[in-house]
Design brief:
single chain, 302 residues, alpha/beta, Rossmann fold, 2 domains, 4-stranded parallel β-sheet, 14 strands, 23% strand, Electron transfer flavoprotein alpha subunit, DHS-like_NAD/FAD-binding_dom, ETF_asu_C_CS, transport, flavoprotein
Length: 302
Amino acid sequence: MVIAEHNNNNIAPDTLKALNAASQLGGAVSVLVIGHQCSSVTDTLRGAAGVTQVYQIDDERYQNPLAETLTPAVFGLAKDHSHVLAAATTFGKNLLPRVAALLDVGQVSDVIRVESPNTFIRPIYAGNALAKVQSNDSKIVMTVRGSAFQACALSEDSAPVVNLDPTETANTISEFIGIEQTVSERPDLSSANVVISGGRGLASKENFALVERLADKLGGAIGASRAAVDAGYVSNDLQVGQTGKIVAPDLYIAVGISGAIQHMAGMKDSKVIVAINSDQMRQSLRWQIMVWSEICSKLCLN
């Protein structure tokens, strides 16, 4: 069973990748959609390749995806499934450990390859090594790294929908206050084909604007190292790395980034990596970005 991440209207791209991973486990694949007025999400997932059944819990109390509210509902269904999966996003990392604790099983985190129904490959030491792990638990709870799997196909096929009643357990631990979301015309960082990231070498927020101009010219997303985020050049939702977002675009351009192991863990699977960096970064940065802007604008980025 895959737990769908969504905003009651649209599916998070990594959910479709988690479905692909689930299909490699063998057997029937179901999806759980919990939300409020989320029928459009359910209708879309009915046509996801490999999905044999969609569970839907639609209730006002699930308008906002608080892990403390969702966990009892997921736990109730998890008992009837051999595997419970979610993408290794903030949503999945917050929800599934709670489910695993209630099931009294260990969690397999950040899976990048499925070897068998109980054997998986996952990165360790910030991606410098890969570990093969095997779970002997009666049920397996796992998060899946989206950058390691292709999204499953969507079609007009219709898997059956099972409507379930909400769980009566009340959430007295947390309360939803509000959401502050950056609206941008640029592609989403996690799923963009082109990502341009800036680091400490840019030296100022004003210089970081050059990265934004390059991203706009290439139709790419903006990323940043932790040093750039800590310096206030950009907001922390753009951080790429071990403690940020994991990306694997067709083209990754790193501007003024030293290449620390924590940052490399978040982008090393990119198909083409271009580094703009030198000992004279501050003096030559503007020239380098202008040159690369012209070069990259001529590349075929299909």
